[in-house]
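Database export, one record per block. Field names are fixed; values are copied verbatim from the stored entry.
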Amino acid sequence: MYKKLAVLGAGESGIGAAILGRKNGYEVFVSEKKKIDTKLKKMLSEEGIKWESGKHSIENLISADYVVKSPGISSNIQVIKSLKEKGKNVISEIEFAALHTSATLIGITGTNGKTTTTLLTYQILKDAGLNVGIAGNIGNSFSLQVAKMDFDVYVLEISSFQLDDIHKFSPHIAVITNITDDHLDRYNFNFENYVKAKLKIVKNQSRKDFFLFNSNDRIIMKALAHTNVKARKILISETPVNEGVYVNNKNFIVKLKNKATMINFTNFTLSGRHNLLNAMAASTIASILDISKDSIRESLTHFKGAPHRMEKVLTIQRVKYIDDSKATNINATFFALDSINTPIVWIAGGVDKGNNYKSLLPLVRKKVKAIICLGTNNEKLYNTFQNVVEIIVETQSMSEAVKISNKIALAKETVVLSPACASFDLFKNYEDRGNQFKEAVRNL
C-alpha cells in the first residue's frame, strides 16, 4: 500500500519534496494557496503528482501520512492548526529529505553568517575532494538533490523557519553562528520563541555528533544553560579554549582530538571580525572531517564570498559601492557598518520585522554622513536617526536612491546598501533588491 505525502507550497522546497516523494513510491498531492503557473502544472502532471491551487483543502490533506510544509508558510494558519489537532505529522522539507538519505549532514544556522559559513564549508570540502552537496536555505532544495544526486556529504544552511517543523532531523555536525533579534513578526514578537527554534538544530543529536557555537554570544550561552545537549560541544572563541577554535594574533588555532592546528588568516579574502568567526567555524568543521591544514588555508585564500553580502560592485570617481542586500536585520547591518573604515552613505529600509535601531546609533554617529531611506514606510528610520546625521533622504526606487547617493558621496567614501529590513515592499526578494542596486550603480 502506498504511503501518502501532502506538500503545502509549490515553491522550490515543496516541488523538491514532491519529486523525492514520488521517487520513493509515495502517492503525492501538492497544495498551493497561490496560482500555479502552466509550466509547473505540466511538470507535476508528467510526474504523476496531483495538485490544487488557490486553496489548501483540509479534506485533501487529512489522509496523508506525512505533510511537508514549505518554510514560507506560517504555522499559525488554520489548515496547519487543523492538521496538527488531528495528529498529522507536519514536517519540514529538510526533515523529509533527511529521512531519505544516509549522507553525512552538516547543519548550519544562526541569525547572521550562516550563508557565508555554509558556502565556505562547502568550498573547503569540495576543494579537498569530498563528494559534497550544498542545500537548504541556499541553492537547490535539499529534497531535490537527494532525489537527483548521490552526495556523501551535505552542507545545509538552515533557517529558523525550516527548524520550526523538525522532529527527528539530526545533523552529524551542527553550527549556530550567533543569535540576535530577527523574524520576530513570525514568532509573535517573542524573542524566546525564535531562540528556541534555533536550538532545535541540536535536539536530536547524540554523543557521536558535534555542536559548534560562538561562546562569546551571550544569548547562545544563556540558552544553552537551559538546553540538554548530548553532542560534543566545540567552542568558537576569541580567547583560548581547551577544545574548539580561538584567535591568536594573525592565526586561529583549532584544538581537536588532542591536536592543535594553527591556520594563518592574513590572506583571507573577506574582511571583518564576523567573517573571521565564519572562517573559524568552517575550518573547524573541515578539521573534524580530517581535512588538512594546507587545504583549508588554500580554500580560505581563494574564497569569493556570498552574493549580496558585502559584495564590492564598482569604484566610481574613487567612491566604493557595496551591495549588502542580504543584511535583512539589525545585526547584519551592524557588522557591515563596523567593517567599513571610510565615511558612509548608507542606503537602508524596507519591511521592518520589529527592528530596534538603537544599537546602531554609536556606529552611525561615528561613520555615517547620510542615510538614504528606501521603503514604503521609513518613519522609524527617520525618527531614530534624524538628530544623528545631517542628511536623511526618503526614496521609493533603487534608481533614485543610487543617483542621490552618487551626488552625496565624495572621493574615498563608501556607498553601502545594507537595509536591515526585509525586501518585500518594493522588491521580489533580497536578491532582486541587490541586483537592482548593482544595475543602478553600473548605470551611473
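Remark 1: Residues 97-302 form a domain with the UDP-N-acetylmuramoyl-L-alanine:D-glutamate ligase fold (CATH 3.40.1190.10).
Remark 2: DSSP finds 17 helices and 20 strands in the chain.
End of record.
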